[in-house]
Write a structure and sequence with these properties.
Layout: H1 11-22, E1 32-38, H2 41-47, E2 58-64, E3 82-88, H3 97-116, E4 121-123, E5 127-130, E6 133-143, E7 150-157, H4 167-171, H5 180-184, H6 190-207, H7 214-223, E8 231-235, E9 240-248, E10 254-258, E11 263-266, E12 271-274
Helix pairs in contact: 1-6, 3-6, 3-7
The structure holds biotin.
């Protein structure tokens, strides 16, 4: 009698093996953690001890139970999305941290284009939009104080999910959500998408950020944004600033021209609405 033994490989091991095989990076993704579920990849990556979180370490979860967004918001993270945090051991000054958000957004926009041919647009400082709706948000946690200097870049990309699952949540932020499934009309291979993002992050990191060409990142970023020349209302948590978005300053902040022609530098906002 012959016995047929069926071995089913887990999501985690299939994802990890395929990603490791596909990546063409030298530094990013040399250490990969994949989980079926986590509370938050960001919390997990932040808590990893130094020895287990070398530069370029990636943490991915199929779903998150307590995903974290910007300004203390929660981030809805059902199965089908790409929920990933990347550990960066920075070799540049603290002034350049804002640029890590820019390179994350650039990498995601490139990867979406590579995978689907869809051209997404960027919203300052770190959102990726398709047809004015948010498809990806980026959260950057920074710890440069202790000996264990690290930046954790969290990417939340609504890929193979119905936007109805997340839209109610995002209206509070004045930005509707969308998903790749909705815009592309199909689901995409999450491992290929991840590979593409990580390859691009490495490219932007080494060719620009850590080689003293951070300002070129601004030019690349601006090229992918439709914000300029538009009237906007920015709420920074204290006041509403109304004006025209005119540029990105050399330190990465947003420059707005107000009604009295004065220029206001925005370094932080809770939400921004375009007219
Ligand atoms: C935003 O508010 O726009 C940023 C959202 C960032 C969500 C991602 S999903 C992977 C990582 N883990 C988290 O808990 N948050 C980030």
């Amino acid at each position: 009698m012959r016995w047929v033994v069926e071995l089913t490989e887990s999501f985690e091991s299939i994802f990890k093996t395929k990603l490791a095989r596909l990546l063409i990076t030298n530094r990013f993704g040399k250490s990969i953690y994949v989980f079926n579920e986590l509370d938050s990849t960001q919390d997990y990556a932040n808590a990893l001890p130094t020895t287990e979180s070398v530069h370029g370490t990636i943490v991915i979860a199929r779903k998150q139970n307590m995903g974290k967004g910007r300004i203390g918001k929660s981030w809805v993270s059902p199965e089908g999305g790409l929920w990933m945090s990347i550990v960066i051991r920075p070799d540049f000054s603290a002034d350049n941290i804002i640029f890590t958000q820019f390179i994350g957004a650039l990498a995601v926009a490139d990867a979406i284009h590579q995978t689907t041919k869809i051209r997404s647009r960027l919203k300052w400082p770190n959102d990726v939009l398709i047809k004015e709706k948010k498809v990806c948000g980026i959260l950057v946690d920074v710890n440069l104080e202790s000996k264990d200097k690290k930046i954790v870049m969290g990417l939340g990309l609504n890929a193979n999910i119905a936007s109805s699952l997340i839209n109610d949540y995002l209206t509070a932020d004045n930005t509707r959500a969308t998903t790749i499934r909705e815009e592309y009309g199909n689901d995409i291979d999450l491992v290929n998408l991840t590979k593409s993002i990580v390859d691009k992050i490495e490219y932007y990191y080494y060719d620009f950020l850590s080689s003293g060409k951070a300002l070129e990142i601004i030019a690349l970023w601006k090229n992918k944004s439709d914000m300029f020349g538009r009237r906007a209302i920015v709420y920074d948590g204290i006041e509403k600033i109304i004006g025209e978005v005119i540029d990105i300053a050399q330190d990465g902040s947003l420059l707005m021209k107000l009604g009295d022609e004065s220029i206001r530098k925005i370094t932080y906002f809770r939400n921004i609405t375009f007219r």
